[in-house]
Structure formats: C-alpha cells, structure tokens
Amino acid sequence: MPAAVVIGAGIGGLSAGIALRQAGWEVTVLERAERMEPVGSGLALAVNALRALDTLGLGDRARELSRMQGRVGIRRPDGRWLAHTTAERAQEEFGDSVVVLARATLVDLLAAALGADALRLGVTVTGVDAGTGVVRTDRGEHAADLVVAADGIRSATRRALFPGHPGPVYAGVTAWRGLVPWDGRPLRSTETWGGGRVFGVHLLADDVVYFYATDLSPEGAVHGDEREELLRRFGDWHEPIPSLLAAVRPERIVRNDVHAFATPLPAYHRGRVALVGDAAHPMTPNLGQGACQAIEDAVVLAHAVGEGLAHAVGEGPAHAVGEGPASVVGGGLAAYSAARLERTTAITRRSTAICRATKIRNPVAVSLRDAGMALAARFSSALMLRSVRGVLEWTPPRPAASGRGPAARA
User: Fold this and answer.
1) Which of 30, 189, 317, 325 gives 20 to 30 Å between its CA and that of 108?
2) Which domains does the chain carry?
C-alpha cells in the first residue's frame, strides 16, 4: 500500500488525509499541537467546497451541522442595503447554497472521518527531503511515497522547496473574529462596508453568532483590549453590531494581521512533496474561499496521485515504503499543480482586489463605490451570484461518495 505523510492537521491537511485514505493510501497526519484546538471562530463553505466534501461523503453532514443562510448582502454603516441575494436564489442558480459553521465543528467532523489511528499529535516536523519523501521530526523519521505539506501560511516546507519566493505580504488590514451567544431573534447575514472597514455577521447553529471585522492598521500593532478597540471602530454602526460587541467576551476575540500572496508559486509541488491550502496559496478572506480552496486542493490531489500509483503498485511486486514508483507520483503531482495553479491564483487575485475596494477611506471614493454597487444591484438582483459564478461553478474530478454531489443528483 502506498504511504503518505501529511504535515498539519488543519482543514486542508485533514481533508487531504481523508481523500488519500479513501483512495487506498496508508496515511499519517502529523500535527505539532498537543491537542486539536482550532484557531479562529467561523467559516463559510460555498457551493464548490460542499461539492468537494460530497466526494468525501461529508457534504450532507456539514450541511446538517451548519445553518443555511437566508437573505445575505452588503450594507452601509447606517444599515441601508447596497446589494443582497438569498439562499433560495443560490440554490436555483447552482443547485446548492452557502453554509456557515464554526471552524471547530468542521475540524471535528474531518478529524472523526480521518480516524484517530492516522493522527499523530505533538509531533514537530524539522525537515523534509523532497527527493526521497523522508520526513524528519522531533520523534524520528517517516518515509513516504508522498508528502503533503498543509503547514499553513508560514509553511516551513514551502520555504524549503521554494527558497527564492518572497512569501506572503501584508494586505494592509488587520482582522478580528469572534463568537457570541444569541437570544434566538431572527438575524440576517450581512457584511457592512464603511470607509476602510468591514464588519460581517452570520448566525450559526445553536444560536451562536459568528462575526468578523477588518480595518486598516499598521502591521503588528498591539491593542490592550480588543473589544474596546472594536467598539471604538464599529460601535456607532447599525444594529446588531454594537450589541454583539457589547456581549462578546474579550477572550473569545481572535485578531490577526491579514497576509496573502502577491506573487504565486511556480508550482504546488517539488519532488514527492505537494503543497495544499495556505501553504500553497494564502489569500485574503474577502471571498470566503480560503478553507474552500484547501478542500478543493485535497480532493484534486488525491485524484491526481491516486489512480496512477494504485495501478502501478497493483501491477507489480509490492514496493517498500519510500521506494514507490516515483515517476508515477511525480506525474500525478505535476497534474495536481496544473489543475490548481491557475484557478487558485485567479481567486487569490480576485480576493485581493475586493480587499483593496474595502480599504478605500476617502469619503468621495467611498460614496462612488457604494453608489456603483447599489446601482448595479438595482439593475440585476442576481449580481452577487453572477459575480462569483466562476468561483462556485467548479466540478470535482470524481463523483460524490454520497449526498448532493453529481452522482447523487444523477
């Protein structure tokens, strides 16, 4: 059986481990944290990510654990709508919708599907040999036919494989995220744009609200009290923003500066190593596609390396771990890079362009931006959906294992 080592047990790493295991690989996922404690608060799974999860047999469960969005759109700080759509319209357009759930919920779902026997916690990777597939850790070495680097935006594996690449750059904004209990009142999913600032609100399952906010800030700025900082910046915006900020516990607020690639990598692989998720293409959160693209990566990677290697191993004598048919793995990884590089680069650039639009502070420019969005939405109520059609209309490389994927709908 071919062996794969996955570095990192985030969304991309767990998804890759599941996809490879389902394709017949022996999988070991290495995670340096001693416990599975997901960083962040909430996330959106768009149509494309749900289709990818369908191929793993997890799409329906993700839908059940989340809350389908009703009316969604963009508002001004005074509450006036600039553009909006509905979950029903998305369902009509794409056969599915966007769901929002806690990041911890998705990580727990993925970890359970992977299986505890494949997960090694408290293991720090110290080096990777791309040529041989040997992964060195503080607890010994692992030899593999394939190494999947899902070690995040500051990926040490990426730096080792592409030492000349400039890496992610600061996008000019800092981001806050938090979870707040809600009292059961109806709550619309909105993203509010002001001068240089954004505040998003989404109701999750179990009456919990996920909020996020961004604002211009010097990189590395330190704030003594993040809740007070948020109230200072957003406290006079429309409800429920002030109420949410008054209710959130300061320790439940997560803040991080936003970084993304300005220069794409030349490929998402070297030797026997593949990069997935933020290790391959860190992007701003403005399209809500970071986690979605990581799950896409996992499904495409498993398909690209799975069939050819399984066929090669099945035809000949058993291969020792680390001595698998490297030419087949290499061909699969080249196909993976070819399938993912153009798409993820385009999505990264588009997300960066939206980020630039949210950073506008000049009052005249803000008024022109808002007027343009409102006018376009007035002439086309489907504007928001059509603007992301190219992102959402993605088809997985293999049929769905269950749920609402192409195989189930056929």
Assistant:
1) 189
2) 3-316+323-393 (3.50.50.60)
